[in-house]
Amino acid sequence: MAHTHDDHHHERPRDLTRNQDLVLSTLNEAHEPLSAYDILDRLREDGLRAPLQVYRALDKLIEQGLAHRLESLNAFVCCADVGCHRARGSAAFAICSGCGRVDEFADDEVNARLAGWAAEHGFALERTTIELRGRCAECRKSQSGSPLR
Amino acid sequence: MAHTHDDHHHERPRDLTRNQDLVLSTLNEAHEPLSAYDILDRLREDGLRAPLQVYRALDKLIEQGLAHRLESLNAFVCCADVGCHRARGSAAFAICSGCGRVDEFADDEVNARLAGWAAEHGFALERTTIELRGRCAECRKSQSGSPLR
DNA sequence: ATCGCTAGCGTTATGTCATAACATATCAGT
DNA sequence: ACTGATATGTTATGACATAACGCTAGCGAT
After folding, report:
1. Residue B88: helix, strand or coil by DSSP?
2. Which of A27, A54, B61, B142 could form a disulfide with B67 if both were Cys (CB 3.0 to 4.6 A apart)?
3. pLDDT, tens digit, 9 for 90 and up, residues B54-76
4. What is the mean pLDDT of chain B?
């Protein structure tokens, strides 16, 4: 129970297991959110065979702040800015319904207001989901259709 | 089968079809978010048989601002304050992982900040999801476990 | 009145996302 | 070597959501 050595005050990208590393790499290489099954398909040749292998890796990555789940998409992205949002509060995501691009950002004022509401109402805030849906600047120029739901 | 009911609609909300009315009533009577399949189960004796009947009704209700989808729960609630949030600005939800209770609220400052980010980045904002997860005041007093995911 | 349009409805089948349950493996600390 | 914690692999199943089809009702314009 006692911390024998290795005081991880700054939690660096800790040692990842093989599966965790594979999943994180896949997310890093993707330019769009991936579903767990998308990830699985890309890792078949690396030996992964079942959804659970991906979901378990994702759980750990998310726990460590290395990846995020997009609730409105049931998909996953790697964190754009490791270590940053974890310290400061939760991240927000702008998801383009044209190209699937996701921009991650954090707004201290927003986080403060939501934390304020929670405090006022005795609500023990554990995590926050903020997702904006719309069309990015690029996609507004080109009047292309909307491939994403 | 011709008209067996009045043509008059005493409802304050818009004209709802039979299925839409059934689904909305079910949400109104529930004290917690319901999944589409929960709703379906409660409406079997009213003749509903397939998920699509529920999903179609939900789509319309959400479109009209009479119900909301909770993305982090894959479940639905009726709008707490008809006509208000519809006007503009999106609603936020505080979801208790202890009892399932959901509080709906709107924070103008939060909405303004998010709209601001969108404007700065040329992002055409269509809709916003804001969901807080945690434990409500009630559930913090009683140290009960966490039945909800 | 009938045509054509739009919206809703009912049904079957299927697709997509996520976890339960169980067995095996790996490794650090005692 | 034993133990406990963590990760892994596999099968099966559960939970959420939509595609595709055809039918019906209401409605307005010719």
Report:
1. coil
2. B61
3. 999 999 999 999 999 999 999 99
4. 87
Output the six-digit token pair for B35.
């999944």
Q: Beta carbon of A44 within 7 Å of strand D?
A: no
- Over residues B4-61, the pLDDT tens digits come to 333 333 334 458 999 999 999 999 999 899 999 999 999 999 999 999 999 999 999 9
In the complex, which nucleotide's C1' lies nearest to the CA atom of residue A74?
C17
Q: How far is CA B78 from CA B22, B25, B103, B105, B143, in A?
A: 12, 9, 11, 13, 28
Q: Which of chain D's bases lie under 7 Å from a protein CB?
A: 7-12, 15-20, 25-26
Q: Do B134 and A113 touch (CB under 8 A)?
A: no
Q: What is the pLDDT of residues A117-132, one digit of tens each?
A: 999 999 999 999 999 9
Contact A136 B121 (CB under 8 A): yes
pLDDT exceeds 80 at position A3:
no
**CA–CA separation, B51 and B30 (whole Å):** 18
Length of chain B: 149
Asked whether residue A73, judged by its CB, lies under 7 Å from any atom of the DNA or RNA strand D, the reply is no
A1 touches strand D (CB under 7 A): no
Domains, chain A, ordered by start? 18-141 (1.10.10.10)
